[in-house]
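# step 3/5: fold
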Amino acid sequence: MGTPANRTVLWVAILALLVAAAVGVNSIIYANSVARRSGRSWCDVVRTLDAAYQQTPPTTPLGRQLAADMHNLRVRLGC
């Protein structure tokens, strides 16, 4: 199968690949958790604005469009 030195190089290469894969998976998990936390923060803002627009509906066309867009954003984000 080869010399002991070749086997050592093979094991080191396999170990390096496993470590790289583990780091990659952990990075993805961390990025997803940060994205979820950020989404929750935006949901708080969007929910508050949408509730305010429903309590006191805007009177101008631009205000009504903004209120509708805010409500649609709240629905799309699942807030």
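# step 4/5: annotate
The chain has a mean pLDDT of 88.
# step 5/5: archive (pending)
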